[in-house]
Amino acid sequence: MTTLLEPRRSAVGSLDTSFTIAGRDFRSRLMVGTGKYASNDVMVRAIEASGAEIVTVAVRRVNLDRTQEEGILHHLDPSRIFLLANTAGCYSADDAVRYARLARAAGFNEWVKLEVIGDKETLLPDTVGLLEATRILAAEGFKVMAYSNDDLVTALRLQDSGAVAVMPLASPIGSGLGLLNEFSIRTIKHRLSVPVVVDAGVGTASDACLTMEQGVDGILMNTALASASDPVRMAAAMRSAVDAGRLAYLAGRMPRREVAVPSSPTEGLIE
Amino acid sequence: MPNALPPTIFPAMSDITVDSTTITPVVNGEARSIRAGSTMGDLLRTLALDPQLVVVEHNRTILRDRAQYDALRLATGDTIEIVHFVGGG
After folding, report:
1. A and B: number of Cβ contacts within 8 A
2. How far is CA A43 from its chain centroid?
3. Number of domains chain B is built from
4. What is the pLDDT of residues A195-225, one digit of tens each?
5. Is B30's CB within 8 Å of A88's CB?
6. Are A61 and B28 in contact, with CB atoms under 8 Å apart?
7. What pLDDT shows up at residue A47?
8. What pLDDT score was predicted for residue A7?
9. Which CATH number covers residue B48?
10. Residue B64 touches partner A, C-beta closer than 8 Å
11. From residue B36, how far is each of B25, B61, B76 by CA, in Å?
12. For site-directed labelling of B20, which of A30, A49, A267, B60 has its Cα 20 to 30 A away?
């Protein structure tokens, strides 16, 4: 059995502010999924390299014809990571609520990454079902992190419905297209009081950096690591990229100017 | 092929064993025969599943207290879902 080592402190350290969702402090702004890895060993090493604390899992039927089949908990130690169950694969509020309740009954926490999908081809969210499920689950005491499209009004309604975090997409799940609408993500972050965690669509380190530079609180990714040629290296790259983007955002970038301004003195040039 | 028989969809009545010593709850979508009088705990043991690593739903009710498993007798037609965590984003 492979287990995770205690993640190292982020290099960002005291230069960053704390990352808090629903009153709970987390040590990493990078969250990772556990799907689609070539092997559990690679997955465990990639999670370790990412430094992620929040790790997502899905709820599925046990395959009874393969009773020796190992669930993900044979590889992840819930005392070292924060398990975040998702409702991936749900196409109605009722299904998502059922999956969330099953996940909570596993006994780890009352958090859920809520997905209510509306379209099989794009996996874009069904915002009506998402809002309904958010209201139901929040009333039952769930801490709902709601996977959403990059629409401000939906994000506001999710917050009003009791979501503890809103998770707009950068681009469709598994697409690796990167951040398609910087303006939308910035606007959502600017207007919401709950944390904004971009979920889905990040493809490589520059995507993660650019996303964090918009000021969002964190990023959740899965395929960008699992489908990289070397998931462990990509996880390390993403960790650096999230830190870099976060620091660049906090540092405040210089204004853009469409003329050159010399960096060296224009005085004292030899004649 | 005029002599070919149509494929058998339903078993002939004579092929069905009526056995009062077994029950057939539907577990994860498939009917499974187990000994009459079996409890949920017995079913999980038969399937070699660690109760700590799965969550069980019985007739759409989630069994949140694992201590209930050995007290819950199963019946033919019960619908049981046994789920666990798998890799996902």
Report:
1. 94
2. 16
3. 1
4. 999 999 999 999 999 999 999 999 999 999 9
5. no
6. yes
7. 97
8. 46
9. 3.10.20.30
10. yes
11. 10, 21, 9
12. B60
Please determine, for residue A54, whether its predicted confidence score (pLDDT) is greater than 50: yes
Please provide the CATH number assigned to the domain covering A26-60+71-251: 3.20.20.70
Which residues span the domain enclosing B60? 21-83
Residue B7 covered by a domain: no
In a domain, B14, yes or no: no
Which amino acid, residue A249?
Y
Our CA-based measurement puts residue B69 at a distance from the nearest CA of chain A, in whole angstroms, of 14
**Among A136, A140, A161, which Cα is nearest to A148's?**
A161
pLDDT one-digit tens code per residue, A236-250: 999 999 999 999 999
What is the 8-class DSSP label of residue A68? T
Which residues are CB-neighbours of B20 under 8 A, at least 6 positions away?
B36
Q: Show the tokens assigned to A252.
A: 């405040």
What is the model's pLDDT at position A126?
97
A175 has pLDDT over 90: yes
As for the ipTM of the complex, it is 0.86
Query: Would you call A113 a catalytic residue per the annotation?
Result: yes
H-helix or E-strand spanning residue A132? helix A127-139
* Residue type, position A51, single letter: G
Q: Which candidate in A113, A120, A143, A189 is catalytic?
A: A113
pLDDT on residue A17:
87
